[in-house]
Amino acid sequence: MNKTEEPKNNFTQVLTPRQIVAELDKYIIGQDEAKRSVAIALRNRWRRQQVPKELRDEIAPKNIIMIGPTGVGKTEIARRLARLADSPFLKIEATKFTEVGYIGRDVESMVRDLTELAVNMAKKEEHEKVKAKAHEIAEERLMDILLPKKPEEPRHEAEDQEKERVLEVVKSDKQPASSTREKLRRMLIRGKLDERYVELEVTNSNVPMVEIFSGAGMEEMEFNVKEIFGSILPPRKKKRRVKVPEAMEILVQEESQRLIDMDKVVERAIRITEQNGIIFLDELDKVAGSEKSYGPDVSREGVQRDLLPIVEGSTVTTKYGMVRTDHILFIAAGAFNVSKPSDLLPELQGRFPIRVELKSLSTQDFVLILTEPQNALIRQYMALLATEGIELEFDESAIEEIANMASKANERMENIGARRLHTIMEKLVDEISFDAPDIAPKTVLITKDYVTEKLDEILEDKDLSRYIL
């Protein structure tokens, strides 16, 4: 059975669905059903690679629709999933697209953007592979700049015969230059030349600014025009005076570009786009209209019709070649508070067989979000203020009060989920953040009374809270 075409370090080769959920639990509180569904979908991609080739192409990805209010973790689940899979991941809003014939983005542009991301990923991987070799070549080039070779004088036949006779003398003459070069190399490696300036000739790859004003579906023209100008105009070179470490970086970058096989990079990028790509299509509910509408909403159904062939599986032309979308995983999300998933075109509904409803966050969820994840909000603020010498400490009752106030604010105003915690925390530490450079070093204890004092008045004043929280 052929098990190629997958990166050796791909997480899905070692993580089971249970382990994927455990990884997601480190960053996302609750939403167990959604985590379970995406874990199975991700594992199924690896399983598909293990089946016989004739059956492999027949297994379609199980696309997912996440239904739930804003700020409950839909985007975060998809983003963390892509990092686990080491896959090209693109998040895009469905509202950016319009039906062909209207001003706006063409739906095929998301596949082009995903391919561009994959090319950058593949290029970065290749860059790491050639880094050591590039560093060696760059070091030699830098040594040539620091210790230029003497220009060779024109030689005559008689002189060549004479030099052959005194070969030993020639060798002994070259020895001091070689030892000087090695001595200089040791100084370079030890960092003793870091303050020295060198003059480099670098290529200026600026392409003239060309703006294309066109309708949907013409985004590719901009890239083509830039490529044409780039190939017609000769590369402009300019001299720069930089310190040795910066010169080394520039030379390593140049040599890496020369060593990388771009054909191989593009081939790999297209493969990982087609087999591992994930597109997170947010705000799908905004293009789902239940009734016939006029004016600005006229192209909603048209966007769905244009999305359909991409999700079903079609071939999209990109500047790197043809990319098939048959096995790209689509994760759609939306609040669906006005429209319903059943308002989507029946054909499009059929292409999203897995539907997961995400729950609104409770006060207890907010407490966990503030404290439990690896990137918990309280840890972020503590780390930020520690850079100024302020040691921030939170009382347990203060954390519960922050969660309680966030929950109240969501009930009274728009429910923006966990994003409300960001606005409340920012207001809470506003004064400390401003005064930090002047009062450091200092330990500041945030208590329940402190939280009440800072936020209670704002929360009580409905007009004020609408603007501040």
From TrEMBL:
The keyword Hydrolase belongs to this UniProt entry's keyword annotation: yes
Where does this protein hold ATP? 29, 71-76, 282, 347, 419
Where is it chiefly localized? cytoplasm
State if Cytoplasm is listed as a keyword.
yes
Cross-referenced Pfam families: AAA, AAA_2
Coiled-coil segments on the chain, per record: none
Start and end of every AAA+ ATPase domain? 60-358
Task: Report any one BP term from Gene Ontology.
Answer: protein unfolding
Q: Where in the cell is it found?
A: Cytoplasm
Which CDD domains is this protein grouped with? RecA-like_HslU
GO MF terms, alphabetically ordered: ATP binding; ATP hydrolysis activity; peptidase activity; proteasome-activating activity
Can you tell me which family this protein belongs to? Answer: Belongs to the ClpX chaperone family. HslU subfamily.
Q: What does this protein do?
A: ATPase subunit of a proteasome-like degradation complex; this subunit has chaperone activity. The binding of ATP and its subsequent hydrolysis by HslU are essential for unfolding of protein substrates subsequently hydrolyzed by HslV. HslU recognizes the N-terminal part of its protein substrates and unfolds these before they are guided to HslV for hydrolysis.
PANTHER family, per the entry: ATP-DEPENDENT CLP PROTEASE ATP-BINDING SUBUNIT CLPX-LIKE, MITOCHONDRIAL-RELATED, ATP-DEPENDENT PROTEASE ATPASE SUBUNIT HSLU
Q: What is this protein called?
A: ATP-dependent protease ATPase subunit HslU
